[in-house]
Design goal:
Layout: H1 2-32, E1 50-54, E2 66-71, E3 75-77, H2 80-83, E4 84-87, E5 95-99, E6 102-106, E7 116-122, E8 125-127, E9 136-142, E10 150-158, E11 169-173, H3 181-184, E12 189-192, E13 198-204, E14 208-214, E15 230-232, E16 237-238, E17 244-249, E18 259-266, E19 269-278, E20 281-285, E21 289-291, E22 298-305, E23 310-316, E24 321-327, E25 338-340, E26 347-348, E27 354-358, H4 364-367, E28 372-375, E29 387-391, E30 395-399, E31 407-414, E32 424-432, E33 439-446, E34 452-458, E35 464-471, E36 479-487, E37 490-498, E38 524-526, E39 531-533, E40 538-543
Parallel strand pairs: 10-17, 26-32, 33-40
Antiparallel strand pairs: 1-2, 2-6, 3-8, 4-7, 5-6, 7-9, 10-13, 11-12, 11-14, 14-15, 14-16, 18-19, 19-22, 20-23, 21-22, 23-24, 25-27, 27-30, 28-31, 29-30, 31-32, 33-36, 34-35, 34-37, 37-38, 37-39
Length: 547
């Protein structure tokens, strides 16, 4: 019995081992047979490398008709007509051909013997597979026995933000050229500003040039008015002495402020949209009408009027007069409402007046005695409003001493444009802040000159939030103290505008669009660092070096 049992046990053990070995072998072979996609290795991200040129770069006594550029791999050209450029610009274009790893440039005949030339390759030489491009490559040559070595360098800034402007074209022209040359001819020499706004024009002759800088957005080497920012110098620059320059680019102000669009918000409220911010005046109207813009210039002229079938206006801007005729549809459904002004995130300064702006022509005799003001805690008993007034025609100011840190509900009758309309109410809820939720700022400024200034607080996107006007007559001191009271906590940029024409706004360049004279953008000065204002803070700053 025992031997038989022992043999059976050995037999079972051998069978188990045999099964285990077979399954492992099958598993291994099955794994080896799986199809795995090829990775192909790391992606090529390296652009072609220029190994040599023939003739060599910076050649003098140049007399070759072909320049060969030899690279370490096969190449292709991307948009060569736009991105291979010979400077100074010549009427005869460059020609080229590619043979495997070699680029051949055919040089135009009859090049000037007294000029240093440069061939610029701007992101146009790439490898065949991944199109990795060489960012910038230049080849310099001269038929003289020397390479011109004068240069102009400098920086381009935004005239409003004073921040660096990148990719701005710095263009040189003959000093005798008219300003309009930048509209129709490519520059003799050019360069572009880098990420820091810096530029350098190298290999220039000892000569004067007319200089313009502009944001060549479409890369056509020509200036497009209104669409591109620009700056220049009043006199020609000289490469021998004007080696470092600073430019401040802005869009040009048009001579005429064109009416672009008319928006009919309802039968009593229209918006006239113009090309740039301005002041407006109604010289004539066939109906009762008022412009309800605030004191700052705007590109929108907002007009409230009594209802008529057809309205006609004569509107005067700073540059011209528009005659406007607007028919109204009697079937157009009108939604009447009010806007509570001076709200910030539904919060009103406790010491501010309650000012309502309607979107329709008011019947104030029916309106004023029917405005109701409640606290949110008591919506049954209306508060005793002290008085009403109509400010800036057809804005309603409610005189009530608001409490700090309190929620209010305002009920205003609407549909009062006609005596036959029945009264219905619009409800507006708002909250007042408290003095401890506001900040106070006092700035002691030593102004550089006796001029007219706008001292502004801007948000970090350079939008003007608060403004103070400063006029300095001859007898006034250049040292002035400006106070901004009860302002909302935030991070601000303190900015001064030199308001030369006293129109209470910043004016940009006017060059080509002004036939009388060039007008440069008004100067802007920015405090060296942002100002962070916190709840219940009283901050005093001294700004003695305004530059």
């Amino acid at each position: 019995m025992y031997p038989i049992f022992g043999n059976r046990k050995k037999h079972i053990l051998k069978s188990f081992l045999r099964f285990f070995i077979y399954t492992q072998i099958i598993f291994i072979f099955n794994k080896c047979a799986q199809i795995v996609p090829l990775t192909g290795g790391q992606k090529d991200t390296t652009p072609p490398i220029l190994e040599n040129t023939l003739p060599s770069n910076f050649s003098t006594h140049f007399n070759s008709s072909i320049i060969k550029f030899n690279f370490n791999e096969k190449i292709q050209l991307i948009n060569p007509n736009d991105n291979i450029i010979l400077v100074p610009f010549t009427p005869q274009p460059l020609q080229w051909k590619v043979k495997n790893k070699t680029l051949e440039i055919i040089v135009p005949e009859n090049l000037d013997t007294n000029v240093t030339y440069k061939i610029i390759f701007n992101k146009c030489i790439a490898d065949l597979t991944e199109k990795n491009t060489i960012d910038y490559l230049e080849y310099v040559f001269s038929k003289q026995n020397y390479i011109d070595s004068f240069y102009i360098k400098g920086k381009v800034k935004n005239a409003w933000t004073l921040e660096a402007e990148k990719n701005v074209l710095v263009a040189l022209y003959k000093p005798s050229a008219n300003d309009s040359i930048i509209l129709k001819e490519k520059p003799l020499y050019f360069a572009k500003s880098d990420e820091q706004g810096l530029f350098k024009l190298k290999h220039l002759p000892d000569a004067p040039f007319k200089i313009f800088v502009f944001t060549d957005n479409n890369n056509n080497l020509l200036y497009d008015p209104y669409k591109e920012k620009i700056d220049t110098k009043n006199t020609p620059i000289y490469t021998r002495k004007d080696s470092s320059l600073i430019f401040y680019v802005s869009s040009e102000r048009p001579i005429k402020n064109y009416l672009k669009k008319i928006q009919l918000l309802n039968n009593s409220f229209i918006h006239l949209i113009y090309t740039f911010p301005d002041y407006y005046r109604i010289k004539h109207s066939n109906t009762n009408a008022h412009i309800i813009n605030d004191s700052l210039p705007s590109d929108t002229c907002k007009i409230l009027m009594s209802r008529v079938d057809t309205a006609s206006f004569i509107i005067q801007t700073s540059s011209h007069i528009d005659t406007i005729v607007i028919p109204f549809s009697s079937n157009k459904k009108t939604t009447y409402n009010y806007t509570l002004l001076n709200l910030h995130n539904n919060v009103l300064n406790y010491d501010s007046p309650i000012i309502l702006q309607p979107n329709y022509w008011l019947d104030t005799t029916r309106l004023l005695n029917n405005i109701l003001l409640f606290t949110k805690n008591d919506t049954i008993h209306p508060l005793n409003i002290q008085s009403y007034s109509v400010v800036m025609p057809y804005r309603i100011s409610i005189n009530y001493l608001l409490q700090q840190n309190t929620e209010y509900i305002l009920k205003i009758p609407i549909n009062t444009a006609n005596q036959k309309d029945s009264l219905s109410y619009q409800t507006i809820g708002f909250k007042t802040n408290a003095i401890e939720n506001l900040a106070q700022l006092k700035v002691n400024i030593l102004f550089p000159e006796k001029k007219n200034y706008l001292v502004t607080l801007c948000n970090t996107q350079h939008k003007v939030i608060y403004v103070k006007k400063i006029n300095l007559p001859i007898a006034a001191s250049n040292q002035q103290s400006i106070e901004f009271k009860n302002i909302l906590p935030d991070t601000y940029l303190l900015k001064i505008i030199q308001d030369d024409n006293q129109n209470n706004q910043w004016d940009t360049h006017r060059f080509l669009l002004n036939t009388d004279k060039r007008e440069f953008a008004e100067k802007v000065f920015i405090y060296p660092k942002p100002i962070k204002l916190i709840n219940n803070w009283d901050v005093v700053l001294d700004w003695n070096e305004v530059k």
